[in-house]
Design goal:
Blueprint (H helix, E strand, L loop, with lengths): L1 E3 L7 E6 L12 E6 L3 H17 L5 E3 H4 L11 H10 L4 E16 L4 E10 L2 E10 L4 E16 L6 H4 E10 L4 H18 L5
Parallel strand pairs: 3-4, 3-5
Antiparallel strand pairs: 1-2, 2-9, 5-8, 6-7, 8-9
Helix pairs in contact: 1-5
């Protein structure tokens, strides 16, 4: 099921849970792997997600930047190498996150915004999302949203990648001062969602 949520603050704008899966899941050793050619952004995502996991009591976290010294991007994604590395380090759960891009939206002063579904492609991703559409009024300044995506894999048993995927979601962070600040806000939204919706325990 693909669900959409709208709120005043950042939330998981869309998320999918594998049907008929028993949740919540507990992983004794989880990997957080950010996919980005930007080493600073990669480090920021992994650090903030890890810190949020710790607040939920998860303290056995392995970071992709420690497992894979080179930056992992879609262009150099080597599935067999990544899978064997995670297995070697006895990882039973893996959270793969990536930055999708930014979107400039007009911002209006009347404060009346309405959700309108759109389907926008960024790279290899098709992102189902809501954009902010205002009633006719006067334009003031650009409003930037940063989009992030996450995939949660269950590696506790040997199974095809498609079967190992148990959850995926996307979120937008409106108007942070930088993409790295956006990554911090996304990290909180992401991890809190996984626990609040009882995907993880």
């Amino acid at each position: 099921m693909l669900s959409f949520m709208m709120s005043c603050g950042p939330s998981m704008t869309s998320n999918w849970v594998k049907p008929s899966i028993d949740t919540p899941k507990y992983y004794g050793r989880i990997a957080v792997v950010a996919v980005s050619s930007d080493s600073e952004l990669r480090a920021s995502l992994e650090k903030h997600i890890g810190q949020r996991f710790e607040k939920h009591g998860m303290d056995n976290i392995v970071y992709g930047s420690k497992l894979f010294h080179e930056n992992i991007t879609q262009g150099n994604w080597n599935e067999s190498h990544i899978t064997s590395t995670l297995s070697k380090h006895r990882i039973d759960g893996a959270l793969i996150v990536s930055y999708l891009g930014d979107l400039n939206l007009p911002q209006y002063d009347n404060g009346e915004l309405y959700g309108a579904p759109t389907n926008q492609r960024l790279g290899q991703h098709v992102n189902l999302r809501y954009t902010e559409v205002s009633q006719a009024d006067y334009y003031t300044a650009p409003n930037k949203k940063y989009w992030f995506e996450a995939y949660l894999y269950d590696l506790s048993e040997i199974q095809p990648k498609e079967e190992a995927l148990i959850w995926k979601g996307q979120s937008s962070v409106p108007s942070p001062s930088s993409v790295k600040r956006g990554a911090k806000r996304f990290s909180k939204v992401l991890v809190d969602h996984l626990y609040n919706k009882e995907i993880l325990k």
